[in-house]
Structures are given as C-alpha cells and as structure tokens.
C-alpha cells in the first residue's frame, strides 16, 4: 500500500504545467492546479475525485485526452477514465456482476414454467366425450445460458482488476484479485455487444458499455502501466470556473468590435475582443479577466499580468462605459492562491493585492484601475457551480476595497 499524499503535487512542482493524473514508468503522479491546498490523508481522495470531476466536466473544452508532450506534438491518451470509473463504482455498490435473471424460450423440451406457458403459448383444444381439454405442444422453458453468464462474470472480474490497477486509488486502497480474460478478446466483446442489445436496465447498459470500452483498447496499452488524464492548459478550466461562478450568460454585448475598411476589396472582416466574464451586481458592472498566473504562489511581481493585459482591460472598460453611461464599471484580474499557505500571508477566500493602470492616463475612472484579486483555488473548485449571491457580494466588496 502506497502513501497517496506522497504522489500528489501542486504549484507546478514537476515543472511542466500538467494538471491531472498520470503514471510514468509505474510512477503515479496526481498534479493539482496552482494554489490548491491538498487535504490530509483522511480526505485526500475527496480532493482527487473533485479534480477528476472538474476535468471530466470540461473535457470537451480543454480536449483533456489530447495532451502536449515535450516536443509539442499532439498525442492521444487511450486511458478510458469514464469506463474505469463506472466499472469501479458498480463493483463497490454490487460486487462482481453476476447474472441472476432467468431467460425463457419457446421449446418442446426443457424445464417448463407453466405460468409463463399459459400466458404466452396458445394451446390446442381437444374434445373427448363432449368435454374440451387444452393440450400444449410447446412450452416456455428455461434457457440454458450458464456458460455465457459465467463468461460475462469472468470478463467483469478482468475489467474490475484492470480498472482498479489504473484508477482504483481514487476510491480505495483495496486491490481486487487479478483475473485473465476467459476467452479470446474479440469473442468477449461480441458477448458484451449481445448483452447491450438485450438489456434494458440503464445501470447494466452503462456497465457493459464500460467493460466493452476497456476491452477495445489496444493490447499493448492494456499491458502497460503508463497512463495520462489531464491537461497542460488548465488556464482554460480556470477561466470557465470563474465565468460559471460569477458571470452572466449573454456577455457578447460587452465585446468591443473592430473591423478593416479595405480600399481594394469588398470584404470588411470584423473582430471582437472578448473579456473572460462579465459580472453584474447591484447597479455596477465588473469585467473579470481570469488569469491563471502564479503571483499568489510566488509573491513575485513579475508573475502578475503584463501591460498587454492591462491595456486590454482598459479598452473593455471604455467600451462598457460607453454602453452603460449610468453604471459604474470595474475591472478585475482574478488569480489563484492558497489561503492557508502563501508568501503574502493572506488568509481570506478573496484578497485584494492592489491595482494596475496606465501611467499615461488620468486614471480617474474606476475601470482605469484594474483590481488584482487572489482567489483560493480549492474554494473555487468546490463552489464554482453554486452561483451564490453571497460570493458575488464578497467579490464586489473586495474589488471596491481599493479606492482611487
């Protein structure tokens, strides 16, 4: 049994920006995002499940199975995490899959179920001495499927061990016994397809499909202990979580637009700048730029957003102010940090660390001074999908804390 916490890393300790779960040369690495406060041994699996659930939620956005290696080539991970997760969860709830349902067929021989026969089969009516009697020539008899059912159970045992060996540490330290496939892999897939076509129970359909997905992996991948699930681009997830926690849906009206007016062409391409998120609270507008930068971890000023980002925020503010002349406009950078462990000695969920502006401007308007806000990474990951008015109020309070 290994110490799970010893396999956990955060704040880019491995120097390659990967966030997720991977095994390299049988060395398990669980890489949390910048600012995540890893729990003690008792609760660490809750942290890992939260990380996995967020990566699964945003897998279409971040293409979480399309990862960049050191040569900047796109590689594809064949690690079927969802299939492993489904097989493990079924096992923990029900144990190994065992078929206990009886199937019947229409036949002249076999173990007869008279109740089903009377309901489904039409008898022949015979008359003798003016008395009618019913004669059945075919019956509903129990279908002999012992061998096939035993094979499905054996396939399940193989898949359970395969799932636990790659992903079981998320759920438990338990490791089930290892089983080999009972027969040729292609025939096992064929049996599972038959089960899928004849099963109407949703839980079982999910299980059979997950077992099939495990077997559909290449043999050389199944034999390997290396796997990878995650992203080198967690900044996209950070942006989406900030937007879901604070943002409005129809933010396009706040996108400043530009266009080309060409002398020798009828084409006039237009472009729009797109702020990450727009928060409305009270009669004020907050333009949020989610920055997955490490200032809250390092405390080094060079890890703050650069002049390009600052100028872009000022433009957003100017455009919003032109649209909403009667509303106050605020600009905000939101960056990760760990409120329990950081070099700035800050301990609240949200912390205002100062503001940035352009030296060439008068900076008399609120939006010209972009507020730098640190947000506790773990708190955001635990609460981003709850859309709390109290959280909006807390951010607004922190943003307005620094006066011009």
From TrEMBL:
Keywords, comma-separated and alphabetical: Endonuclease, Hydrolase, Nuclease
Question: Matching InterPro entries, A to Z?
Answer: Restrct_endonuc_II_LlaJI (IPR018579)
The record's GO molecular-function terms, alphabetically, read: endonuclease activity
**Protein name as it appears in the record:** LlaJI family restriction endonuclease
The scientific name of the source species is Helicobacter pylori (Campylobacter pylori)
